[in-house]
Write a structure and sequence with these properties.
Among the domains are: 145 residues, Gyrase A, domain 2; 89 residues, Elongation Factor Tu (Ef-tu), domain 3, CATH 2.40.30. The chain is an alpha+beta fold. The chain is built from 9 helices and 20 strands. The strands form 4 sheets. The chain has a 6-stranded mixed β-sheet. Strands 15-18-17-16-19-20 form a 6-stranded antiparallel β-barrel. It starts with 13 loop residues before the first strand and ends in an 11-residue tail after the last strand. Helix 2 packs across helix 8. One of its GO terms (cellular component) is glycine cleavage complex. Pfam families: GCV_T (PF01571), GCV_T_C (PF08669). One of its GO terms (biological process) is glycine decarboxylation via glycine cleavage system. This is Aminomethyltransferase.
Length: 391
C-alpha cells in the first residue's frame, strides 16, 4: 500500500480541486506556476510508458480558463491575438499566441469556439492572470466580456492509445458515436460519468486523447470514474514529469523554455500561427497587437533557430546547457538548450535548442557542454516522435 505523500504546500500556492486525491494516491507534489501539483505518483518512466502504450490521467486544473463572449468576441480576439479567430468554426479550436507590441510571446494559447459569440481561451498556469488582464485591456472598445473562469473550472486529461475507449465507456450510449467522431482540435459538450463536460480532442503528449473541462465541484467524481474505468486497461495517473518528457518527444514548446518574452513565433518555428492577412468584417486589413513588429520579421533571417538535437552519447543535455562546435573553443557558444532529457520511447537523449542559423541544418553535428564535457549531438527534424497512425 502506498503511503500518502506529506503535504508541504507553500502558503502562496493554490490547490487543485483534486489536491486531496493526489495526496491519497501518494503523489510527490511540486510548486508549478503558482500551484501545488503532482510531479509523479510512482515513477516517471512508468507513467510516460503508460501514456504511450495505454493511457494516462492528468490533472491540468492549474491551466487558466478565460471566457470571451459577446457580439464582437471574435473581433476582440482577432485584435488581441496573432491568430484569425473569426475563421474558427463553432466546435473547433485553434493554437495561437498573445504577443507584445514588439512581437515577443507573452503566452501560447488554445482557443475553443464554443458558440458563435463565445470562446474559451486556455492559458498556461503562470501566465493566466497576465493573459486575462491583457484580454480585458485589449478588448476595450469591443462589445465583448472577458470572464476569468479558472477558479470554477477543473481540467482533466486522458491521453494515450486507449483514451477514446476509456472516455466513451463513461458517456451515454447515444453519445458514444459522436465522441468517437470528434476530430482533432474539436470539442463538444457531453455528459461524462454523469458530469456535464466540455470534451476536447486536444492534448500535450503527442498521443490521441481528450481534455475534459468540468465544474471544479465535480472534479473528484470525474477523476475517480475515469480511474475506475481505465485502471483495468492499464491507465495510470500521471504527473508533470511524464507530461514534460512526453511533450518533449512530441516537439511541443513549453512556455519559459522554448517560448518567452525574448522570443518571437518566427524564431520558434511557429510563424504559421501568425496571420498577417487578417481582415475585418468589411474586408479591410486588420491590425492586431504586435502586427507591425511581426510583419517586419516575416521572411527575415532570425538571429537564432529552434532545432531538435539527438544525443549520440548517453548523457542528456539539460535546459541552459551551451551548444558548441565540437573540438573548438568551448567558450564560443552557438546556442543553448531549452529542454532536454532521455527519451523513454526512443531510447536515446533528445533536446530542443536555439542555435545560430548557419548551424541549424538537419544533419549538422554539434556538441553540448555537459558539465565541462562535450557530448556529441546531431540536428534532427522535430518532432522526435509521431504516434503510429491506424492502418
Amino acid at each position: 500500500m502506498t503511503e500518502p505523500a506529506q503535504d508541504t504546500t507553500p502558503a502562496a500556492d493554490r490547490l487543485s480541486p483534486l489536491h486531496d486525491e493526489h495526496v491519497a494516491l501518494g503523489a510527490s507534489l511540486t510548486s508549478f506556476g503558482g500551484w501545488q501539483m503532482p510531479l509523479r505518483y510512482t515513477s516517471d518512466l512508468a507513467e510516460h510508458r503508460a501514456v504511450r502504450e495505454v493511457a494516462g490521467l492528468f490533472d491540468l486544473s492549474h491551466m487558466g480558463e478565460i471566457e470571451v463572449a459577446g457580439p464582437q468576441a471574435a473581433a476582440a480576439l482577432d485584435h488581441a491575438l496573432v491568430g484569425n479567430l473569426t475563421a474558427v468554426p463553432v466546435g473547433r479550436a485553434r493554437y495561437t499566441m498573445i504577443c507584445a507590441e514588439d512581437g515577443s510571446v507573452l503566452d501560447d494559447l488554445v482557443v475553443y469556439r464554443l458558440a458563435e459569440e463565445r470562446f474559451l481561451v486556455v492559458a498556461n498556469a503562470g501566465n493566466a492572470p497576465l493573459v486575462a488582464d491583457e484580454l480585458v485591456r485589449r478588448g476595450e472598445g469591443f462589445d465583448a466580456t472577458v470572464t476569468d473562469q479558472g477558479d470554477d473550472t477543473a481540467l482533466v486529461a486522458v491521453q494515450g492509445p486507449r483514451a477514446e475507449e476509456i472516455v466513451v465507456s463513461l458517456v451515454a450510449p447515444e453519445d458514444v458515436q459522436v465522441v468517437k467522431d470528434l476530430k482533432y482540435y474539436a470539442s463538444l459538450e457531453v455528459r461524462v460519468a454523469g458530469t456535464d463536460a466540455l470534451a476536447a480532442r486536444t492534448g500535450y503528449t503527442g498521443e490521441d486523447g481528450f481534455e475534459l473541462f468540468v465544474p471544479a465541484a465535480r472534479a473528484r467524481e470525474l477523476w475517480r470514474a475515469v480511474l475506475a474505468a481505465g485502471e483495468p486497461l492499464g491507465l495510470v495517473p500521471a504527473g508533470l514529469s511524464a507530461r514534460d518528457s512526453l511533450r518533449l518527444e512530441a516537439g511541443m514548446p513549453l512556455y519559459g523554455h522554448e517560448l518567452d518574452t525574448t522570443t518571437t513565433p518566427y524564431e520558434a518555428g511557429l510563424g504559421r500561427v501568425v496571420k498577417l492577412d487578417k481582415v475585418d468584417a468589411e474586408g479591410n486589413p486588420l491590425d492586431f497587437v504586435g502586427r507591425a513588429a511581426l510583419a517586419s520579421r516575416k521572411g527575415a533571417q532570425p538571429a537564432r533557430v529552434l532545432v531538435g538535437l539527438r544525443g549520440l552519447g548517453k548523457r542528456p543535455a539539460r535546459a541552459g546547457y551551451a551548444v558548441v562546435i565540437p573540438g573548438k573553443d568551448p567558450d564560443v557558444q552557438i546556442g543553448h538548450v531549452t529542454s532536454g532529457a532521455p527519451s523513454p520511447t526512443l531510447g536515446y537523449p533528445i533536446a530542443m535548442a536555439y542555435v545560430t542559423p548557419e548551424f541549424s541544418a538537419e544533419g549538422t553535428e554539434l556538441a553540448v557542454d555537459v558539465r565541462g564535457r562535450e557530448e556529441p549531438v546531431v540536428i534532427v527534424p522535430l518532432p522526435f516522435y509521431r504516434r503510429p497512425q491506424p492502418s
